[in-house]
Amino acid sequence: MADERHLPPHEQHGHEHGHEHRQRHDHGHDHGHGHGHRSVRGRFAHGLFRTHTHDSADKTDAALESSSRGMRVVAVSFAVLMVTAALQAVVVVASGSVALLGDTLHNVADALTAVPLAIAFSLGRRAATRRFTYGYGRAEDLAGVVIVLLIAASAALAGYEAVVRLLDPQEVRAVGWVAGAALIGFAGNEWVARYRIRAGRQIGSAALVADGLHARADGFTSLAVLLGAGGAALGFPLADPVVGLLITFGICFVLRDAAREIYHRLMDAVDPALVDAAERVLGAVDGVRRVGAVRLRWIGHALHGEVEILVDHGMSVARAHAVAVEAEHHLIHGVPRLRSATVHTDPHGPAGADHHATLSHHHVPAHRPH
């Protein structure tokens, strides 16, 4: 529909008809582009003004496999962290260590982040509908918001307990067990962190990577509990609540980083290096005279792109279409995690021509890379 603006009014209806069918079913060869059933006028509209999309069975299978793997990672990490937290909770009851309590609460919160992630991965497998035309990949971003709220809650609770214990110091018992529980917390979190980060990078899930970094931070806060236990063993009972406060500050730093990551996703931010890569790929395609706007966005753990290319104004419709298809194909294979691309072609020249004059009063000037 984005390119329908270039068609005369009497052609717009025919241009729209069968849009969804074209995207999924009317392609006959390996890369999904065929036009045997179109009229001459339909081929003209499709070839020069129409957007092009690249959907294939292997891309769909890869998406489903990514979601399935994400679900497995979430389930395993949830189990490991809950066992870790349960072992620590037993020592908290026996020792009364507020530092260990803060670490245990943080581990529980980290484990619970598996719930919104699991829901998001499950929703992400659902097919697009006429209401949710881009599918349900954005559920991962909503899960990220829930994760941020859980981290904030754990920080608030740990900080509250530390302040209470500072105002009313209590003896820490079973210092050796506290130290052992801290080491268990570190081991459990570091294992989960490596598992989540590795899988998240492989399937392209920023939410899973962020959650893995969160687990790694939790591991280091578990080591901080050792300081509190050591201080208590040396006769400094306030060391335990002081370390509890330090852990709270550490959680706040993790909260800041996680909130920034989710904010970027919600605002459709991408690494500028990905835009640079897309421009390089497009610029190398035979027939592309110039690269226009390049827009990328994450939907779940996959990238989607909308790009503009300029081709010679004297180029035939069929050739312009072939250039757009080739550009699309190169983009999908040349930009990491890019699952689909929409390519719009504009004529380059003749000098002084404004091919969008009719629409000039409808759009606020936007920044273009060139």
UniProtKB/TrEMBL annotation:
Compositional bias of kind Basic residues: 358-370
Biased composition (Basic and acidic residues): 1-19
Domain of life of the source: Bacteria
InterPro entries: Cation_efflux, Cation_efflux_CTD, Cation_efflux_CTD_sf, Cation_efflux_TM, Cation_efflux_TMD_sf, CDF_Transporter
Keyword rRNA processing on entry: no
PANTHER family referenced in this protein's UniProt entry, alphabetically: MITOCHONDRIAL METAL TRANSPORTER 1-RELATED
Stated name of the protein: Cation diffusion facilitator family transporter
Region (Disordered): 1-40, 344-370
Domain Cation efflux protein cytoplasmic: from-to ranges: 272-348
Transmembrane regions listed in the UniProt entry: 73-98, 104-121, 142-162, 174-192, 213-236
Cellular localisation: Cell membrane
GO molecular function: cadmium ion transmembrane transporter activity; ferrous iron transmembrane transporter activity; zinc efflux antiporter activity
Pfam families per record: Cation_efflux, ZT_dimer
